[in-house]
Amino acid sequence: MPETTPGATTGATIELEGLTKRYPGNPQPAVENVSMEIRAGETVILVGPSGCGKSTTLKMINRLIEPSGGRIRIDGEDVTDIDPVRLRRKVGYAIQSSGLFPHMTVAQNIALVPKMIGWSKTRIRARVEEMLDLVGLDPGEFHGRYPRRLSGGQQQRVGVARALAADPPVLLMDEPFGAVDPITRDHLQDELIRLQHELHKTIVFVTHDFDEAIKLGDRIAVLRERSHIAQFDTPEAILTNPADDFVSGFVGAGAALKRLNLTRVRDVEITDYPTVTVDDPLQHIFGLLRAGGTNEILLLDRRGRPYKWLRRGDLMRAKGSLARAGTLVNDTVTRDATLRDALEAVLTDNAGRVAVTGRRGEYTGVVDMETLMNSVHELLEEDRLDALEHRHELEEARSGQTHSEQEGADGPGGEAAKA
Amino acid sequence: MNFWDFLGSRHQQLLTDAYQHASAVFQCMVAATVLGVLIGVVTYRSEWAGNLATTVTSGILTIPSLAMIGLLIPVVGLGVPPTVTALTLYGLLPIVRNAIVGLRGVDPSLVDAAKGIGMSRAARLLRVELPLAWPPILTGIRVSTQMLMGIAAIAAFASGPGLGNEIFRGIASLGSKNALNQVLAGTLGIIILALLFDAAYVLLGRLTISRGIRA
Q1: What percentage of chain B has pLDDT greater than the value 90?
Q2: Which Pfam families match (chain B) (predicted)?
């Protein structure tokens, strides 16, 4: 893995205060009085139905859309009135369908911002290589390519590399993965998570896909029309304790299933299972099966990878031939897989368990249905308690402000309008 | 005297005329390109200004060239000035129109991206919008040049430079033994020059249009 430059800039705080956008000739503001505090190094997702003003809100942060009212502070500095060009060089920007300039090579695209802020040629060259490496593209191969010779996913990676090239503390992403196929999107999301682990930027990410929000966000702001914040909280809290009908409508059915996406296999109990390897003498395998305590053992191949499930009697029926006995293992999960992946694997495997493997595919344990059910129950219960506590605190802290806001603009009638 | 003998005896004069013809067209094209792209850049953002520029320049094109040069003589005098003025004005339309179409055709999300990564107005125009609009602009320049090659022949009417002089002399002395040769030499010369220019533009396109957007 490439090392990031020592002293690389990590995130900055962003404060939005009463941000409003009015368009002439339209009595209703497009975005009304958005206040939000985003902590340094945090990934915040703005999610909401189309037309709710989430993109407008994002574009006001780098003033692609000039706010009609309110303040923006980045790292404490009020940037509402500074030269927008200066502001934008501190704020990376990645958009849907990448926005790469087709007449420039990948390297030229990435070098744009560093060039504008006057880095030396050698520093820019090194940085371009570093960025390509960072987003998982081979510098030698992609350096001189033009964007039209890249796949959608690769273009998007270059787009992110360009946004991060000058090492801005803040990264704004406007539905960046909206135009790629679901598999690529999944990959890109994983990459972004890994990248953020290394870089700790402050990321504000707009999407209309709630599952994407859950996957990527440290905190999620669910927006309703005019960018009113319906709920701004951790994914866990929103899933288990949606603030109102609008939010639960947006979370959609299956909150408990979605919750499975937030927990990894390594967080639950992985049980041990009796195993034998293909090189063990048959006698030993028979003995183990006959000794009782278990109906089934897992047969590993020579490299210790799960190979077959062997039941009592399987060997007899196959007349003692390991090659013909038992059922092949058709799905395994790693410790980094989500519980959802694990559940999927358990469901497709008819015996209700799945083998967990390590980095090179070697057996490390087994997760079964019961473990999954128990852990989900525990998780949901924990979340519920957390959320209640959190909500209580918030309510106390915010009661005054919330009251005035609700009475002012958003009467009780608007509550469930979009739910 | 047959055509080849005529060429042999007059090649000095013909080459001078051809050189002057090419040089006049080239210089007028440079002026028309600079002016045309400028007009395009200034007007493409606004619906009515862009349309106005296109309408005015196409209006100019409808004035018969002979009349245009004739009308210019009392204003700027004889010789080179009316030629250059007329040619530059005629050359504008294809360039202005293609510049406006090209600049308006740049994907708005790219302009947004350019703004978003902190490019100034000038940088956006020079590094993103114009390079992307360059292929249609170059096509406009090519069309303009072909047109000016022919129109430049009329310049001889105002004692301007170029191969038009051969044609005019020939027409004036119709019936004399070299009349046809003169007209033919002038016309062929113009066609050859036009082809040479076109080849040069193909080369220019090769050199200046980024491989990333070349068709």
Answers
A1: 41
A2: BPD_transp_1
